[in-house]
Amino acid sequence: MRKSLSISALVVIFVAELSGILGIVYLRHAMDVHTSLFNTMVEQVFNAENDVEQIRSHLYKYEYNMTALINSSRIDKSATLHELAETELMIRNQLVVHSEIRKSMEYGSEKEQLFRSVNDDVLKYLNFNVVPLSMLDTESPEAISEYIERYIMPLVANVNQSIDTLSRILRVYIDTQKISVQKDLHESRIASFLVLVVIIFSVIVSIIYSHRVLSELEEKNRFFMRKSEASEMRISEIQYNTIMGIADLVESRSGETGQHVKRTSHLVNMILLQAKKKGKWADILTDSFIDNVTRAAPMHDLGKIVIPDAILNKPGRFTDEEFEIMKTHATAGGKIVHDIIGGVAEKDYVDIASDIASFHHEKWNGKGYPTGKKGNEIPLCARVMAVADVFDALVSERCYKKPMSYDDAFALIEREAGEHFDPDVVELFLELKDEIYAEK
Question: 7-214 in CATH: which number?
Fold first, then answer.
């Protein structure tokens, strides 16, 4: 028999499966967190790029208005000045947003320095533009243009250069992070696949080993069942031989050879099988019931062991007192059955054996003993036993009589149907006449 699977192996399989499941859950969580962080980072980059592009756009608009203001007539200046002021306000408001975005960056990093440079250059640009505005009424357009070209345009160029550099850095950063995220996601998928393979392998191994354990258990169960069945059969055989031995001893006390118990047991079996064949008492006549009655039949006269030899072997008729003593063997038989096999045999078998020993002298008309039961009040096993017992007693030689012929015995049994015997049992018995003659 194969060695059983150790508990440690089962623990290893369980831990592998649990670790695999937890690993997949963790990887899934890590992928979700990583993706979320990447999306947040991309959103921040786009906000930063949008911010500097907004500043650039406002600067272009401001520069356009400034150029228009320098080159316009006096009549048109008021409207242009108003629009220029609104554009400056928009730039300053955007610089506030710009400063908030810069606070989220690592101080001293290249991005933070570029953001700071854009902020400083734009403020310088706005401050330097105050001078050209003051020169509008006192200086020529050429002088103003020269000032703008010398002091302001370099600031615009610095701002553009910083914004372009920042945009390029942000794009490179996004691409780098995208590649990193894709790599991490790819590795996570590979890890998830490997973990899944481990789980599947563990499940397959556990199924194989579970099947092995179940097979071993079934094999052991079959082994113990065979041992149990063999033991039960041996015990049953010992019980039956013991019962037959006791029955033979009882019969030998009355001058019989012990064949009576065997013949009556055989007749009982024949009647019950015929009844089952004809569909009689279908709710009672199971195979187990027939087997129990057949095996219990030899115990029908166990109670005679308490009857004195002088009465048991008396060659003539009993006196009334002697007959009363003789009748006690029925009740004594039921008690002896319970004493002998009550604690070792199945309850159904014990009950049937007790009923046979106690009531096989009851009569259908209620005039039998020991309790005067009548009709179907008498257990079926005892009604069948009564026919078999009386028939074999009639055709057998006893110390007090000669044997009766089979014809006369069959005739007597038939006459007593409805009086001594159950009519249905008698009918079944007579149907077996030819078979009984053949076994004579």
Answer: 1.20.120.30
Residue 136 half-sphere exposure, CB side, CA atoms within 13 Å?
18
Can you tell me the mean pLDDT for 415-429?
96
233-438 falls under which CATH superfamily? Hypothetical protein af1432 (1.10.3210.10)
CA distances, 3 to each of 8, 203, 213, 217, 220 (Å): 14, 21, 9, 11, 12
Q: How far apart are CA 380 and CA 189, in angstroms?
A: 78
Q: Give the span between the Cα atoms of 230 and 232, in whole angstroms.
A: 5
* Closest-CA residue to 58 (of 135, 202, 143, 156): 156
Q: Report the amino acid identity of residue 64.
A: Y
What is the DSSP-derived secondary structure letter of residue 149?
I
Return the domain boundaries, the chain: 7-214, 233-438
Average pLDDT over residues 284-313: 89
pTM: 0.51
Residue 231 CA from chain centroid, whole number:
35
> Mean pLDDT, to the nearest integer, of 231-257?
64
Examine the pLDDT at 252 and tell me if it is beyond 70.
no
